[in-house]
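Appendix B, record 7
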Amino acid sequence: MKKWLPAALSVTVSISVLLTACSSNDAPSATDTKATATTETSKATEAPKVQATFNVISNDGGYAYSKTATKEDPYHTEMARLFSEFSGQPTTIKYEFIPSADYTQQVTVRFASGDIPEVVTSDSILNSAHATAVENGIFLPLNDLIDKYGKNIKAKVPEATWSLPALSKDGKIYGIPKLLTPINPQALLIRKDWLDKLGMKQPETMEEYLAFFEKVKTTDLNGNGKNDEVGYEIRGMFGFSNFFFYAQGISPGENGALVWHDVNGQFIPDIINPKMKEAMLFYKMLYDKGYINKDFINVKDADWVKAIQDDKVATWSHDLRNLNSWTPDKFAGKSAKIDLLPGVKQADGKYLLGPKGTGIAKVYILTKNAKNPERFIQFLDWTYSDNAKKDTFFRYGIKDRNYTEANGQITWDPKLPANANEKLQYQTMVNPSGDTRMDPEVIKREGVIDPELVKKGMGYEEKNLFEIPSMSMPTPDSIKTKPELGFAAGSLFLDTLTQIMIGKIDPDKAFDNFVADWKKRGGDQAIKEANDWYAKNKKK
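Structure tokens (predicted):
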């Protein structure tokens, strides 16, 4: 490990999305092939057999199947069986899915009460739900374990990723990432059939977006006899709802951390950036004009999806990997045509779609309660390997439940109930190394996503995302245990934004009062710490 990170390692483990890159020439097979020494984890055939059990907590992502999955779910069981067969060591892996809307709060309570499982998934080892876990020795350092058991992990995770504060602290690694593929899967979707019905061209400037929203608001595009359509749909906690921050080149936070920019020579968080005041007032205008959903405060993930699929939403932000959630058959009218937008065109002709991310979907973190931590590293390494049986499972699920095989050829029907309702569980929710929803073989077999649309979306990501200069900055010590100074649920920022939007507080004074309060509660010291870091680490 000394060549890729100079100090001892530690790991934070989490479930999220990494896309396994697969050649379109690979023939799907449920039969394992002989692996090379560089791509397979060494089998422990000569070691004594020792049973190891790992309980993993993760958020359910708002996914219906995960909400009801038990610890003995067949996909957890089959994945553990395949790894046990491969490694020669009996291993049990049980996922406990916690509602995404309450995940931070529930994890906070569990850490406070000492009810800590062997493995935690998070967006960062420094997440406010467990902000002091590293210092308190709850998270295990994993440098030596990765060196010994993680050659595939080391080969697949970019070297620069290990220094990110989401994974490491003081030169030690505490988390193993689930990688995103593509690295920045930002997507802004639009009902192209509504554009066509209105005779309008694709919006580019902000003025054109607003003109489109006005037409959406005043035209019965879904044909139900009501003007109940909105231009853009927002969630209560602002997940997938930040596009109009992004349009100004700012973001409240990404990957669980505040986003900071240099403003007139001072490094400050975007939540107190003068541009943020303009953005808050813009969201209020959208609310006042009826261009966004009036009930956004109470909108959960499932409500958000339902509104879109009920033909009531013209544009929405989402993850490019979720394009198969928006095929015509998912919509009430069965006739929706979806396209992707490049963002908002700026005065210089460039587009802003969103910020560049870390490339990390989730972080897996081993805790001190793990009795066989080396086994879990072996398991993660197996998920990062080119093992054929593993690849088949993460693409197509369980034989004779999700697919059949005859003469070495797999038959997989994505429309079968076991796949239509459950495929996200095996393709991403229990996949620690990635996400196969955009695997070329999966896309080809599903036949529902236009490859050209995927190509367009990835092109927008390459050209239209802005840099985050604070990406590798650790959360300042003065605010890391103060979630009220962050940007998520329970924060001064989100409360101020919400109250401004619905007209509960004076918008002209509220932002300035928020900034003053934020600074007084620890923000001034955080700015000092951040500027010290920026002076040493900013790009020349």
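Remarks on this record: DSSP finds 18 helices and 22 strands in the chain. Confidence is low (pLDDT under 50) at residues 1-45.
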